[in-house]
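PROTOCOL LOG
Step 1. Enter all chains and additional molecules of the complex.
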Amino acid sequence: MGKLIYLDNAATTKTSPTVVEAMLPYFSEFYGNASSIYSIGAKSKEAINKSRAAIAATLGARPEEIYFTAGGSEADNWALKATAEAYGAKGKHIITTKIEHHAILHTCEYLEKNGYDITYVDVDENGTVKLDQLEKAIRPDTILISVMFANNEIGTIQPIREIGEIAKKHGVLFHTDAVQAYGQLPINVDEYHIDMLSSSGHKLNGPKGIGFLYIRKGVKIRSFVHGGAQERKRRAGTENVPGIVGYAKAVEEAFATMQERTAKEAELRDYLIDRVLREIPYTRLNGHRTNRLPNNANFSFQFIEGESLLIMLDMEGICGSSGSACTSGSLDPSHVLLAIGLPHEIAHGSLRLTLGADTTKEDLDFVVEKISGIVERLRSMSPLYEDFVKKLQKNG
Amino acid sequence: MYSEKVMDHFQNPRNVGEIENASGVGTVGNAKCGDIMRMYLDIDDNGIIQEARFKTFGCGAAVATSSMATELVKGKTIQQALEVTNKAVMEALDGLPPVKVHCSLLAEEAIHAALWDYAEKHGIKIEGLQKPKSDIHEGEEEEAEEY
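Step 2. Run joint prediction.
Step 3. Record the structure below.
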């Protein structure tokens, strides 16, 4: 196989070499437990404090409002379950959307089994949350609104400021899963009235196994992992010092390059979208045309199935992902694609390509050429395409 | 996750295409679940399957099982073709991941649906053959998608 063209940066990213470099001393040199009294322990403590402060600054938050976790899923679980528990006496109603990540949706299902009532708000055909429906869903017993900052599959950016205002107006807590957006879009927790925010290190060229939950000061939220006094007694466990240091380094790089990098990615994204829509017939773009993550493109190719497409792309050294049932391990295609109103058979033929900082125009030219050939080949094998062509011919 | 045989039949599928005026055509599956197989059979006067072709909308395993199914029924009698079970297709492909076993069932059903169509067209009854459950008759597709 020749060159690898990695276009699945929404799944995970390559850990940046400078991040690895920053982490290395904290494995074998400054390996002390941050809770210890001796100097290498203090060195760890200092590194954690610095990292926490650097991350807090990017959100307009205070260092003591950042709680490190083992990743985005833990942060989402914590935000929902611990809020439900802490505010359960006030009410048992939570509002979320139909297009959240499974870390939110499956946690909501768990809460439903435990006596909580969840409203799943609809999105429009672009994947934007219906604000009027969201506001109408608020009841006296609503304790939390959780809406993702930007969608991981179709890239649509949500009206977070407006949702934050609605939540504030009604005195309801607001959590956002910003796993895809953090490091790609500027976020200010005060401006957007965000009470809690989840993030994950490996989505922005940081290491895997580290994330954080921002919790606004004053929000009453219980400990999720019980044990030692780490993370202000709210999340026990010896800190993942190399992970935290690497995460902060990745964040530093992501924010230093954000404007230039995302502008370049958005330009390449639009180039990719324009070429695919122009050159491959019976294709649609999923998600909002402009108000989407700078690195996200998501297409549906009619009459073909996504897994076949992914395997054939893989044979050309191209990594992408799909919302087809076969790639999700269930019989249903992606809940996000169904929520924006796609029929099942079109949802099965989806392809998500998420660009990275090192993606080039030449890469995308190669990718478009390959997709075009593969789609044509799969259509020539597809009974759905055969029926479609026959119908066209019959109708002349 | 796929065996070399599956990958081979996916990358170089045998017998892809249509047969004009086929003796029997069967379409099975459901676009909702992401798999549709159509099998064309050409059966001579002695009841021997002279040719088998397919078209498939589906994942790698769906394409590979269709391809293998056409290979297995070619040159066989109708009775022999009925013995090409999903297990036989899976074995010939050196196995399938557990989540893909349903693809091999679909391949078996595609053979049955094509034979059922042949029997109906010729007004004969094939011993041991039942109408496949996931058979899609023309004109029924739209209705099937509504639920």
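Step 4. Note key features.
Chain B has one domain: 4-122.
The first helix of chain B runs from residue 4 to 11.
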